[in-house]
Specification:
The protein is an alpha+beta fold. Helices cover 37% and strands 22% of the residues. It has three domains: 6-280, no CATH class; 288-431, Protein Transport Mog1p, Chain A; 436-489, Membrane-bound Lytic Murein Transglycosylase D, Chain A (Roll), CATH 3.10.350. It has 16 helices and 19 strands. It has a seven-stranded antiparallel beta sheet with strand order 10-11-12-16-15-14-13, sandwiched between helices. Strands 7-8-9-17 form a four-stranded antiparallel beta sheet. A hairpin with a 2-residue loop joins strand 7 and strand 8. Helix 1 runs antiparallel to helix 6. It binds zinc ion (ZN). The site of zinc ion (ZN) has 6 residues, from helix 5 and helix 7.
Length: 490
């Protein structure tokens, strides 16, 4: 968690202010003359320039290792230089987010997350993702959509968080990613075709596009297992859901293109050596999920969720869910100094609605308040408990506890303990919190999936995490001399 909901709301305000202007242009990548009723190229550049700083604020730039940024830029500009927009300036940014995602906004701004880099297993896979995103820009896909379409999902997401309904778990990390939702299937196919074109022109193996989709599939399946979401729709924040595609079509397109590249570059060892030491998972600015504890060394706070809950550390909040559908949403807000927390809940949080059982509480010496409401959820009545705590100055932290009404009673004590577990970290405690990092190791004779998995700094699913991280489907794929990724305490 790095910030409050304000950035989401600011983005919605921006959407409302954007003018709608008609124009007719020729698409530089496809050569088609297409009617683009919503944005001219000049408008796209203006929007990109305006939105880029917001994306940076939302996610932060990962620039701990400048040579890594230089490496990404080198690959990206190699692809850009063979695209139809090589004469227009592009900006490539590595974002400090552990979600495996990539997206482009109008005007040539392309973003890749370090989470995506951690998942990729070679340079060609990274190049494939970048090529695809360049394809969305050169194909002028944003220009073909109205801003209402672009931002429709965003408004719904903000409402979802406010009500703590079932959508809440799916909106962690959304923010600027709402830009890319709503590309059509045909636009995705076109971006793949353009991406494959740039990959082959730059000498990369175009099959990497498909192998990375497969890798994302492994990661998505494991994430669902970790979050009790097996069988459910893809989480809203992965590259999968924002760029829906069919793997066989990508394979078919790549196979025909492959014949045209002699000695296609994959760059596995080069790539792995470059990402050695990169932060894996949450960074210090985002706070860490460690088992049932969330601890944030920069904000200097910690709390603990009940047994059986799994946490998702988003940009604007921390969400915890359990198998029975109970949810906890933790985030920050601001309230004028001197405003009682009971007033905050009624007048600010609930905008005039008075919850039942409104009362003041004391949380480890901090002023707080709590109350509850029964609301209509998508699958029947839900109970929502509101807890707000005055941290310091104007800062307020708050918990939203949501349970299907029929199971609320059994959660009152565990939720109460979570509320009262919110506390300040000492300097020593904050300093002792270290991020996890990727470590690239060479497989030695006698190493097995089992022995390498034991070196993974996790309490659970070590073997599964190791296999997915390295794109392995069986023990037999491990060979002495091969480089593999493990995750260690930094
Ligand atoms: Zn796409």
């Amino acid at each position: 968690m790095t910030r409050t909901l304000r950035s989401l709301l600011a983005a919605i305000a921006f959407a409302a202010a954007l003018p709608v202007i008609a124009g007719c242009t020729t698409n530089p990548a496809t050569g088609q003359s297409n009617f683009t009723p919503f944005m001219t190229p000049a408008q796209e550049v203006a929007i990109g320039r305006q939105e880029h700083p917001k994306v940076i604020r939302e996610f932060g730039v990962y620039d701990e290792k400048p040579e890594l940024n230089a490496y990404v830029a080198e690959i990206a500009f190699r692809l850009h230089s063979v695209s139809e927009m090589s004469d227009q300036p592009f900006t490539f940014t590595l974002l400090d987010s552990d979600m495996a995602n990539a997206f482009a906004i109008p005007g040539g701004y392309v973003y890749i997350t370090r989470g995506l880099m951690a998942l990729a297993n070679n340079e060609a896979e990274l190049a494939g993702v970048i090529g695809h995103e360049i394809g969305h820009v050169t194909g002028r896909h944003s220009a073909q959509r109205s801003t209402q379409q672009i931002f429709a999902g965003l408004g719904a997401a903000a409402v979802g968080v406010a009500l703590g309904n079932q959508a809440a778990a799916q909106v962690a990390n959304m923010g600027a990613l709402a830009w890319v939702q709503g590309y059509s299937r045909s636009q995705e196919m076109e971006a793949d075709q353009l991406g494959i074109r740039y990959l082959t022109r730059a000498g990369y193996d175009p099959m990497a596009m498909a192998s990375f989709l497969e890798q994302l599939g492994r990661e998505t399946a494991l994430s669902r297992r970790l979050l009790f979401q097996e069988g459910q729709a893809t989480p809203a924040d992965s590259w999968f859901s924002t760029h829906p595609r069919t793997e066989d079509r990508v394979v078919a397109a790549a196979q025909s293109a492959r014949a045209t590249v002699s000695n296609p570059r994959v760059g596995r060892d080069d790539y792995l050596r470059r990402i050695d030491g990169m932060i894996y998972g949450d960074s210090p600015q985002q706070g860490y999920v460690r088992g049932r504890t969330f601890a944030h060394p920069t904000l200097r706070l910690a709390f603990e969720v009940p047994q059986g809950f799994r946490m998702i550390n988003g940009n604007t909040n921390v969400i915890a869910i359990d198998e029975r559908g109970a949810q906890i949403v933790f985030d920050g807000d601001q309230a004028p100094q001197g405003m009682a927390m009971t007033d905050y809940i009624v007048n600010r949080w609930l905008e005039g609605r008075r919850p039942d059982g409104l009362e003041r509480i004391d949380v480890n010496g901090m002023q707080g308040a709590t109350g509850n409401l029964r609301l209509d959820g998508r699958n029947g009545p839900v109970d929502v408990r509101f807890v707000a705590v005055r941290w310091d100055g104007e800062t307020v932290y708050r918990f939203l506890f949501v349970t299907p009404a029929n199971i609320t009673a059994s959660y009152s004590e565990p939720f109460r303990r979570t509320s009262y577990s919110l506390r300040r970290l000492s300097t020593g405690e904050a300093q002792a919190l270290r991020p996890l990092r990727l470590s690239i190791v060479e497989v030695r004779a006698g190493d097995t999936v089992e022995s390498l998995s034991r070196r993974m700094a996790f309490d659970d699913f070590r073997r599964e995490r190791f296999m997915v991280l390295n794109g392995l489907d069986s023990e037999g794929q491990l060979r002495p001399g091969m480089l593999v990724k493990i995750v260690v305490e930094g």
